[in-house]
Structures are given as C-alpha cells and as structure tokens.
Amino acid sequence: MKKRWMGLAAGVALIGLAGLPAAEAGEIKNREERQQGRIAEGIESGQLTAREAARLERGQAKIEADRQKALADGTMTKKEKAKLTREQNAASRQIYRQKHDAQTR
C-alpha cells in the first residue's frame, strides 16, 4: 500500500512539473503580446513609420518562431527560455528606441 501511495505521489509530482514549461511559454507569449501592443500604439500615435513597424514586426515573428521551435518537443529548457528572454529584451529596447527617435512619418 505504501508503494502505491509513493507511486501516486511521484506521478502527481511529474504532472506538476510537466506544467512548468507551459507556464514559462505562457509568460513569453504574454510578453510578445504586450510588445505587439506597443508596436500598434507606436503606429497609431505616429511614433513609428511603416518601415520601422515592419522591421519590429519581423523581429516579433522571429521570436514567435523560436518559441514554437523551443516547444516543438513539448518542453522548454532553461537555455531555450534564456535565449527567448534575451531576444525579447533586445526587441523591447529596439521598440523603445524606434518609438522615441526624432523621426516622424
């Protein structure tokens, strides 16, 4: 009986760990969506030109493709998450720079 409970507890623990990569992927997806919103705001306000917005959108598409690739095997490693975070940090800085440069349409 004790072995049965130990096996059940181990199974529950594994199921709980399996959900972690999905949560991490969700964090990355949420950040992508917020960055998309920042790009849209820049377009609406005139802070971004069409060319700047297109370049930023391509960057976001690359991040999304990398996220899909990281999740292709069903899990996201710490290394993959770190890479995506670095990409998102760089994209965020680029969005800020493009929105705050002296350019206008």
What is the molecular shape?
A: elongated
Instruction: Report the end-to-end length measured between terminal Cα atoms.
Output: 73 Å
Query: What composes the largest sheet?
Result: none
- Strand-residue proportion: under 5%
Q: Which percent range fits the helix content?
A: over 70%
Taking pLDDT < 50 over at least 5 consecutive residues as the criterion, the unreliable ranges are: 12-20
**Total of helices:** 3
What structural category do the secondary elements indicate? mainly alpha
DSSP summary, beta strand count: 0
Radius of gyration, taken over Cα atoms and rounded to an integer in Å: 19 Å
Mean of residue pLDDT values: 84
How many structural units, i.e. domains?
A: 1
**Order of helical and strand elements:** HHH
